[in-house]
UniProtKB/TrEMBL annotation:
Cofactor(s) this protein requires: heme c
Organism: Noviherbaspirillum autotrophicum
Comment on bound cofactor: Binds 3 heme c groups covalently per subunit.
The Cytochrome c domain, residue ranges: 48-151, 193-303, 322-412
Gene Ontology CC, one term: membrane
UniProt keyword Heme present: yes
Binding site for heme c 1: 62, 65-66
Annotated protein name in UniProt: Alcohol dehydrogenase
Origin organism lineage: Bacteria, Pseudomonadati, Pseudomonadota, Betaproteobacteria, Burkholderiales
Gene3D superfamilies: Cytochrome c-like domain (1.10.760.10)
Binding site for heme c 2: 208, 211-212
Length: 433
């Protein structure tokens, strides 16, 4: 065999493998449907199942994504911005032409558990089926029973606006092979019923990892990074780690502190702003006290992971010293009246700045945005008149914002890094929503 013939044969083998392997991946993902043998628990006429489904839909915060501002509930059309383009939520009312009126409970279970639509096509993971796969068949059927009681809304689904090649849905087969492991939650026998309930809600319907886990350039995440915090793509907020670090400022968080924060948006240890405020307003405040307590028990048990910037200023330069002195003066002028000179605040109205994880995280975006734009914790039944923070974007320039944020991030035992005016300038124009 000549060298030319050998090279030609090798080329054909490589070409064949280049076609065969992707075809196998796509084929396997198309037919892979674990849990498809589970029998529907849908009742013919069960008010109890419908009521439970309504509660679970709240727990999953379904309305938040499937309702556009000013639109009809669950009719879809809300743009979900991603690094790859806009994905528009679908109509999940029981309209037979534009919604899920022709779906069966098996079709709905397929979407929840395996991330596939009624026709078998792959769903984009902006729909968090990577978390919802942990939902039980009984809970899936209950949610479906509730959705069937909604008023049908005739509203066509919008086409996604995704860049090539992400617009090619079939290529999700490769993403799924890397980042999706379908399977309902399995209770841990060595843990309490409350812990297991909390884990089920946090890992499943609550889909907390969708925001609180860092993602790579393909939008995938590793189990080892689960709930350790990360930037929320395109929203310009940093979702703090839910794993409490070993620092003394965080060890004193009690289960009640976490439960209060999840239920009302404020606690003696802090308050929530930004996207999390919407989650609490639309979802968590409506959950039962026992479920909120279970979530707090589980979250408090997550192994300590240090995601704080851990800055050791040591001997500061004259320039840094000048910045921190300026920041201290600005803090006393604009912040100390509410947050106090020692940073301990007057909770729950005025949250403490001591030991607040998001203030000292690797990314300074949260404190920068809050100083610039102000904000409110969510309005909840447990905190119907939240105290708000005024915006300082007009009053303070980039250097002044950098100085006061640097002071807060490095004072009272906080171990954040210094912030530069360039950092502030990058986020000054970030969309508020």
């Amino acid at each position: 065999m000549t060298k030319r013939h050998l090279m030609k044969r090798l080329f054909l083998i490589v070409l064949a493998m280049g076609i065969f392997v992707p075809a196998c991946v796509i084929g396997l993902e198309l037919v892979r449907e674990p849990g498809s043998d589970q029998v529907s628990t849908l009742a013919a006429d069960s008010n109890g199942q419908i009521a439970r489904g309504a509660y679970l839909a709240r727990a999953g915060n379904c309305m938040a994504c499937h309702t556009t501002r000013g639109g009809q509930e669950y009719a879809g059309g809300r743009a979900i911005s991603t690094p790859f383009g806009n994905i528009y939520s679908s109509n999940i009312t029981p309209d037979k032409k534009t919604g899920i009126g022709t779906w069966t409970s098996n079709d709905f279970w397929r979407a929840i558990h395996n991330g596939k639509s009624k026709d078998g096509s792959f769903l984009y993971p902006a729909f968090p089926y990577t978390s919802y796969t942990k939902v039980t068949r009984a809970d899936s059927d209950a949610i479906f029973a509730y959705l069937r009681t909604l008023t049908p809304v005739a509203q066509e689904n919008r086409q996604h606006e995704l860049q090539f090649p992400f617009s090619q849905r079939i290529l999700l087969a490769f993403w799924r092979m890397l980042y999706f492991s379908p399977g309902a939650y399995q209770e841990q026998g060595n843990q309490s019923p409350e812990w297991n309930r909390g884990a089920y809600l946090v890992q499943g319907l609550g889909h907390c990892s969708a925001c609180h886990t860092s993602r790579n350039f393909l939008g995938g995440s590793a189990d080892t990074a689960a709930l350790t915090g990360g930037m929320i793509p395109t929203l310009n907020w940093y979702a703090s780690s839910l794993a409490l670090d070993a620092g003394a400022a965080r060890r004193d968080w009690q289960t009640k502190d976490l439960a209060d924060l999840l239920k009302t948006g404020v606690s003696s240890k802090g308050a929530v702003f930004g996207p999390m405020a919407e989650v609490i307003s639309g979802s968590l405040q409506h959950l039962s006290a026992s479920d909120i307590n279970a979530m707090a028990i589980y979250l408090k048990s997550i192994p300590h992971v240090d995601t704080i910037a851990q800055s050791e200023l040591g001997e500061v330069s004259k320039q840094e010293e000048a910045v921190l002195k300026q920041g201290a003066k600005l803090y006393e002028k604009y912040c100390a009246e509410c947050h106090k000179s020692d940073g301990k605040g007057a909770p729950p109205g005025y949250p403490p700045l001591v030991g607040t994880r998001s203030l000292a995280a690797r990314s300074p975006i949260n404190p920068i945005r809050i100083v610039l734009n102000g904000g409110y914790p969510p309005t909840t039944k447990g905190n119907p008149r939240p105290y708000g923070m005024p915006p300082f974007a007009v009053e303070l320039n980039d250097s002044e914002v950098a100085a006061v944020v640097s002071y807060i991030r490095t004072s009272w035992g906080n171990k954040g890094n210094m912030v530069s005016p360039i950092d502030v300038g990058r986020f000054r124009g970030a969309p508020i929503e």
